[in-house]
Amino acid sequence: MEDRYGRNIDYMRISITDRCNLRCCYCMPEGLSFAPVEELLSLGEIEAICQAAAKAGIRKLKVTGGEPLVRPGCPSLIGKLKRIPGIEQVTMTTNGIALGQFLPELLEHGLDGVNISLDTLKPQVYRQITGEDKLEAVLENIRQAADAGIPVKINAVLQKGVNDGEWLDLALLAKRLPVDVRYIEMMPLGQGKGLEPISNKSLLRSFQKAFPGFREDRQVHGNGPAAYYRFPGARGSIGFISAIHGRFCKGCNRIRLTSRGKLKPCLCFGEEVDLMGVLRRNPELDECAGQKSMELQALFRRAVLQKPKEHRFGIEKDVTEGRQMVQIGG
Ligand code: SAM
Ligand code: SF4
User: Fold this and answer.
1) Residue 87 CA: distances (Å) to CA of 99, 112, 152
2) pLDDT at residue 303, rounded to an integer
3) Domain 11-328: which CATH class?
4) How far apart are CA 31 and CA 115, in angstroms?
5) pLDDT at 81 (0 to 100)
6) 117 lines ligand 2 (CB under 6 A)
7) What does the pLDDT read at residue 281?
8) How far, in Å, is the centroid of ligand 1 from the Cα of 330?
9) Residue 74: nearest ligand to its CA?
10) Given a cut of 80, is residue 270 above it in pLDDT?
């Protein structure tokens, strides 16, 4: 699907739940209330939306949340999404806590790759950021995923005075393991508002100083907006997702589906296109599935045409998305 700026939108991030087993300080405040279960898309509804999405031109799916692995049935959903004609790739973003438990099933269902969020290698800092003592489990699960041979990416959000001093230690994971390590600039959404982002520009300079052989890596690594580099002796690459200080919107290829059945053209703004209304209209009449699919495809095209040219995260008053990241789907 081409948008008004000539970009091809063929990638959808799907939040399959707003629940999570962590409370990361920039994503999910203590005491946040969850949507009533009946207001979340059922797994069948997610599959129906993805079938329509594929017909409209979506080719790659990323399953996210909240924490996708707390949603019962997540692995088999991945298998169902993989079997949709037109869908070429299904990957997942997870905090990694339950990944070891579900990895065999996820692989059996054809998961094509996994992003694992990890901001620190220090147990007390992990607890400070996430509220839980799960660092060892996550590290073990990263090793297991890397051993399984699927592409693994580590996502790290750096915060001034909390974990910014660990940029190099985190990068060295790409030396020990065949994983890419990516730095995501903190976005001013929900709890992330007011937290100072560490600029990837200055981080890049630190890398260039530490590794004279730090070179751009032009190989395609995924569907996202990361710029990749390599340093000598590393097994994986280093990626920079410069949400604030970079101009990555020119290459934006994505749309987001929230766990409540809304399509979000851009993370920065509150505009949404409602799919739930179509899905749940007249269920007792057993309305023709083909008719609903056509309507969903038209809504996809509408959402794509609503995509703005670029985000405005740099100007606080222009950020109209008022929810927490965990509610939107990161
Ligand atoms: N629970 C899963 C996880 O942690 O990977 C998936 C959902 S989480 C919302 C997806 C990603 O969003 C994580 O890598 C997390 O670090 C990132 N994230 C959450 N809030 C953010 C913020 N305010 N700014 C930048 N990244 C954020
Ligand atoms: Fe949960 Fe992921 Fe948000 Fe952390 S970043 S609270 S793991 S959804």
Assistant:
1) 23, 12, 20
2) 97
3) alpha beta
4) 27
5) 98
6) yes
7) 87
8) 5
9) 1
10) yes
